[in-house]
Write a structure and sequence with these properties.
The protein contains eleven helices and four strands. The longest helix is centred in the middle third of the chain and has 46 residues, at 158-203. The protein is elongated, with a radius of gyration of 31 Å. It has helices at residues 3-18, 20-57, 70-81, 94-105, 109-118, 137-145, 158-203, 206-214, 219-259, 265-271, 273-300, and strands spanning 60-64, 86-92, 126-131, 153-156. It has two domains: 3-54 and 171-300, no CATH class; 57-167, Alpha-Beta Plaits (2-Layer Sandwich), CATH 3.30.70.
Length: 302
Amino acid sequence: MPKPIKRVFKSGWKKFCQNFGLSIATIFILVLTISLATVLFIVRDTTKIIIEDLQEKVDISVYFNQDCPEEDILAIKEELKSFSEVKEIEYVSKEKALEEFTERHEDEEIIMGSLAELGRNPFLSSLNIKSWESSQYEEVDIFLENSEFKDKIADVDYFEKKPVIERIFSISTQINQTGIVLAIIFSIIALLIVFNHVRMAILSFRREVEIQRLVGASNWFIRGPFVVQGIISGLFAAIICILVFSATICYLSNKIGEISNGFNLAEYFTANLVNIFILQLLVGIGLGVISSLIAIRKYLKV
């Protein structure tokens, strides 16, 4: 490492230690800010995973008339498979529908007795359709209503499931928009708070900076130690955050799994540990460095 750079890092570490109380306060603010950024990142990703899981369980079913031949239904299935909105499509014959119903209710005597008295298979053949996104089901429904084979369709249960589909789409949209707004707000607040702490640290070394200017030190040589302080503060804050979050998520993982249909938060955190730590480093060091650069430029007129 070149000697001038080594001297800047050494001076930055010395300033960090000399102003230890203020450095701890800056780290504390950075820890709070990094924690907020991490929570937003985790909530955004985990909510997306949970919503995708819900979307996987949502589909619409197209029921066909009793007299509709199976070959016609399979031909319709092939036509629907060519649509970009359709992710999966499954054919369920009326015989299979009866078999599945019987398996689900075999221990319920009243239901099975009623079915036996009916003396026939009351179920209709159907196509279960899954779209890539919840917003695409309406397009599929419109196509079915205007298709050439609409006379063969007995019912489409889109309108029965529409409130659930719309709710999932609404939640997903709101979470994305809220996450962006909160990230911007917290970043601005954090920048102002950290900037104020760094400004106080710089002011405590004002005389030293004035002497450096008198002896002809360059702007970057003066800025350097304060930037290093920002880097050190951000690094310590990121390390503290990753340790705190690791312990917290290990503790909360089982509890969250119980209320989120088995979602394993610890597994998600471990799989994304590197990305999360990089995010924390970028937020911590970025805020520390930017605040230092702004404070030294504005208040010391370097």
